[in-house]
Amino acid sequence: MSEPRAPVDLILLWHHHQPDYRSPRDGRAALPWVRLHASKDYLDMARHLERHPGVRATFNFVPSLIDQIEGVAAGEPDELFERLARPLAGLAPEERRLVAWRCGQAPAHATERWPAYRVLRERAARGPTGSPGAAGTQGATALAGDGGEPLADRDLLALEIWFLLAWVDPLFHDAPEVVRALAGRERWTERHRDDLIQLHRRLAAEVIPAYRALAARGQVELSASPYYHPILPLVVDLAAARRAPPDLVLPAERLVAPEDARWHIERGLERHAAVFGARPAGMWPSEGSVSPETAALAAASGVRWLASDEGVLWASLPEAGRRRAALYRPWTFAADGSEVTLFFRDHELSDRIGFVYQRWEANEAAADFVARLRRIGREHAGATPPVVSVILDGENCWEHYPDDGGRFLTALYDALEAAPDIRTRTPSEVLADATPLPRLERLHSGSWIDADFHIWIGHPEKNRAWELLARARRALCEAGAGPARAPDAWLALYRAEGSDWFWWFGDDHYTPDRAVFDRLFRELLQAAYEGAGLTPPAALRLPIVREAAAPGSHRTPIGFVTPVLDGRRTTFYEWYAAGRFLLGAGGAMHRAGGLVRELHYGFDAERFYLRLDFTGDAPPGPEVDLTLEVVEPRAARLRVGGLAVGEPSVLWGEGPRAGEPVVGARCRVGRVLELGVPFASLALVPGEAVALLVQATRGGGPLASYPDEGGLGFTVPTADFEATMWSA
Fold this sequence. Notes:
By secondary structure, the protein is of the alpha/beta class. Helices cover 36% and strands 16% of the residues. It is built from 23 helices and 21 strands. The strands form four sheets. Strands 10-11-12-13-18-17 form a six-stranded antiparallel β-sheet, with no helix packed on it. The longest helix is centred in the N-terminal third of the chain and has 27 residues, at 190-216. The chain is globular and about 90 Å long. Residues 128-148 and 585-593 have low confidence and may be disordered.
């Protein structure tokens, strides 16, 4: 007679999250992933659980995701779906290119299900459909390519329809809109596409009610995250990033905003209660990030439980206490007179669902999962069952599973229902047991990735984003524009504190949408300034993500230059050691109608020099001005009035000296423009890193930026600059 198996309590927590893609300018979603995941993941996750009433689970919703799901259902605008809803004949060539590129992004299981989609997608990839930086999602396949012919209307319509079908979970393939589309594929019309667009909206509208119903019948616990998904320990104090590792490079400007962290927690709880009818008992902090300070804030707001990763637990315990059994129990942590319970996820089991089982046959994967739970039950049995927490993303991993994960979820839930020795429970049910819980004497500051925060801080791009955020917040405070006085400004700032902007900056992760995330982040900070009646700094016009220049298009300075400022190429060697940008097609020259074809820049020990070579060797004329805007290390703006042959004045463009000549500056316009400005006039000192925007304007409105919207950067030379260059 076999021994009875030791019981195991299993907490399954599925985390639903997408960044806030809505532009503060017009409210339109710049990326479609909330809408697409609603019809492919959020709703079907609820429906799969409905079919297994014996399984209990926890679903975590980020409040800003709830806002967007409700917005989709209410018809809020979306850049991609607005284009998809238009007649093909009304799309401009660039719009056709972007639609074709985006509609090639599909879950792997969809192109396996429908080979015709894969063939059309591959054909489109050979055409001119690559995007200049505007797409992607974790797990989605990006489309790119050059050459070939653009798609005809029939093929572009087919690509749109396949894309819409691909992002509907197979659980809903019996919907009339899907049935009609698949039956009529040889004679597709725009009506088929439009019906599928409406299906996506209808499925999104069912998401929140489906989870409310599951909660009402007691099958799920619904938890929340801080409102805009910030890394709370970093918002409280960026210095928390150095608790592990201590040598991490921090931003130059420190952010310390515990009141912002409190806002994200409390407003998140309120929003959750308004949608689901009750405040959540627990939180999955964004990316499982915790610290003693954030645990205290959560406890003070009435949060009963938090969850993080096992790596945080091991770093919180003394070495002698780091035994595996310690993972399979909740822990309490007391801070500032309040107490909160922490659950720590089994990293390997969570990752097996997230990354491993997608390559397994569904029943074998479910059997392996159950066997691992039973092994934990045998090895860590005690007075109470071991509590195993499995916590992971509830959306992105399914794109590489057959049937969008449907077969695996069915097999997993079937196996759990059939296992008498495994109880699926929610965190609050576990807490309802009267058993005293062990106490953590200290809580490590870290996230689910390596038990630290390096994914969101430390890289130059990430640090620059934090500096821009910290400066914006400081500007609001110094202007006396607090949250009560300037609520719109602070709402934009809170949105900019979200984790996803920092996730995509740097080189830890790749998305072809890096430029979109960059733009949205800077738009939010601009909106924060504008909402308080302040002028956004020029630094917010410079991309944080710096794309590499095309090979051969940029050369950095190799030595000092001291040109004769006469508006012509006086000698061959005059600008030989300067830096140079070739402004080819698609660059600033192309966008500005061909005003400038080359930009040269350089310096000697005292002055910065700029040369612009005009297209056709003729200046644009007196109606076109030139502005030079120093963005870093401190703001300064110069204006060269009227690019006609002669010696235009170089004037201060803003501040108390606006309209006055810049001391020592000189400019001459002829076949080229040559300009020299003393570093001293700009208050720049040797060794300082400079970021500079060069813009052509007409009537005060921008025509083009040179060398591009990213501007140019250099370091003010020190006395040994040339010696250093020669030794190199």
